[in-house]
Design goal:
Keywords: Ammonia transport, Membrane, Transmembrane, Transmembrane helix, Transport. The protein is globular. By secondary structure, it is mostly helical. 61% of the residues lie in helices and 0% in strands. It contains 19 helices and no strands. The protein starts with 29 loop residues before the first helix and ends in a 13-residue tail after the last helix. It has 2 domains: 396 residues, Ammonium transporter AmtB like domains (Ammonium transporter fold); 31 residues, no CATH class.
């Protein structure tokens, strides 16, 4: 196999393809970037997965808005990333806190070796990291569900990715970042993805205020458990690429990270179901099992490439137990964050980051042939303190900056972060979308009209024998 390519600052794009074959430098390493591209493709499935999960958890009258938002978020975030997001997070001349605009508009981002792996073309690395950013932003907007205005939420998404996600990603994964050099161990995004999104969603819910008629029986009741299950399975599948690709190579370490991902998710299900069965006298909850899987996935994210399989099982189980026991955390804080983003991602991410410091193993980190990392299990107790420094820094920065950003947007004339009360009561779907939701509302309207004495016989003829009221309905 040829030697790994070396970045040449005089040809930052990797060479002129009209004069040389830019692929020649990667001969023998094609399998590596093909694997990372495949991981990127399946990470993309997390985005509609979150949309389906959120849609199922919300009430029916706001379900369409959350599906639509998942597509809009990936579109807006992609524009932000190619505009300046990638440069702010991963430029080679970045400072300890934020990158420069050296790669503004993806300038010179093409065939050169990426900043994080010499055998990965930078365009592949850029695409893979874009999907991390999009998933994170999609998690954040869950804090505004059922009352957030669509257009301001998209503007917030662009700004949040710029002033929160990109700096935190630079701290954590850029070789010049201060957390990277501390070092705080974060394999796949416990800090930039989960802790940051959890605290930011909490800030979003705080600034918007509580939903109207919060104590109605329908509040907090998922309208479609099937969508919750489907969304969770897509997220779980996408997470194999999320964690399995974060080694940035197709090494044994990457394969272990994928194994650990499944292990932690499964143990998360068992942990949450155990708590639910104790709380509810032996009864179970499909939504609870799904939340347990996500808690396990969140907990293992920073640790996937640093721990053995059995310790991954412990992390998934412990994280889900902690999150399940904090079921009422929103009530304690008196903040209406009904999608549980803070509980699952914020708290779950903090637990995972802490346990990474406790359980990280040098022998596991070295499975890629290059990484050196030790944790408490190797006798490096200082690593736990460094993990806590990461948790505190990212938590404080994400929450405070998100609050400032939201209040700035709130004070801009015409920038109405929250929908009008009437729109909230009738639902975001009817208030903000054309009449695409041809489900129960339209059918119910037809039934009400056809049930009048004057129209009943006509309705029966038109519906092929349908009758309403106390009579049997034949379809």
């Amino acid at each position: 196999m040829a030697d790994a390519p070396v970045y040449n600052a005089s040809a930052p794009s990797g060479g002129n393809p009209l004069k040389i074959d830019v692929n020649a430098q990667y001969v023998g390493y094609e399998w590596n970037y093909t694997y990372i591209m495949f991981c990127g493709f399946i990470v993309w499935l997390i985005i509609p997965g979150i949309g389906l999960l959120y849609s199922g958890l919300a009430r029916r009258k706001s379900a369409l808005a959350l599906l639509f938002q998942s597509l809009m978020i990936v579109a807006v975030t992609t524009f932000q990333w190619i505009f300046w997001g990638y440069s702010l997070a991963y430029s080679r001349d970045a400072g300890p806190f934020i990158g420069t605009l050296k790669n503004f508009g993806l300038k010179d981002v093409m065939a050169a070796p990426s900043p994080s792996s010499a055998v990965l073309p930078e365009i592949v690395f850029c695409f893979y990291q874009l999907l991390f950013c999009a998933c994170t932003v999609m998690i954040v907007v869950g804090g505004a569900f059922e009352r957030g205005n669509m257009l301001p939420s998209l503007i917030f998404s662009f700004c949040w990715a710029t002033v929160v996600y990109c700096p935190v990603a630079c701290w954590t994964w850029n070789s010049n970042g201060w957390l990277y050099n501390l070092p705080a161990l974060d394999f796949a995004g416990g800090g930039p993805v989960h802790i940051a999104s959890g605290w930011s969603a909490l800030a979003y819910a705080l600034v918007l205020g509580k939903r109207k008629n919060l104590h109605e029986p329908s509040h907090g009741k998922p309208h479609n458990t099937t969508l919750v299950f489907l969304g969770t399975t897509l997220i779980w599948f996408g997470w194999f690429g999320f964690n399995g690709g974060s080694a940035l190579n197709a090494s044994v370490r990457a394969m272990l990270a994928a194994f650990n991902t499944n292990t932690a998710a499964c143990m998360g299900v068992l942990g949450w179901v155990l708590v639910d069965s104790i709380k509810h006298q032996g009864k179970f909850s499909v939504v609870g099992a799904c939340e347990g899987a996500i808690a396990g996935l969140v907990g293992i994210t920073p640790a996937a490439g640093f721990v053995s399989v059995w310790l991954a099982a412990c992390i998934g189980f412990l994280t889900s137990i902690v999150c399940a026991l904090l079921q009422d955390v929103n009530n304690w804080m008196r903040i209406d964050e009904g999608m549980d983003v803070f509980k699952l991602h914020g708290i779950g991410g903090m637990v995972g980051a802490f346990l990474t410091g406790v359980f990280a193993s040098q022998s596991v980190a070295a499975l890629d042939g290059a990484t050196e990392a030790t944790g408490g299990i190797d006798g490096n107790g200082m690593q736990v303190g460094k993990q806590l420094a990461e948790v505190c820094a990212i938590s404080a920065y994400s929450f405070i900056v998100s609050c400032i950003l939201l209040y700035i947007l709130k004070w801009i004339p015409g920038m109405q972060l929250r929908v009008h009360e009437e729109a909230e009561i009738i639902g975001l779907d009817r208030a903000q979308f054309v009449d695409e939701q041809i489900g129960e509302r339209v059918v119910l309207d037809d039934l009400l009209v056809s049930s009048s004495p004057a129209n009943s016989s006509m309705a029966n003829r038109n519906s092929g024998g349908m009758s309403v009221g106390s009579k049997e309905i034949k379809m």
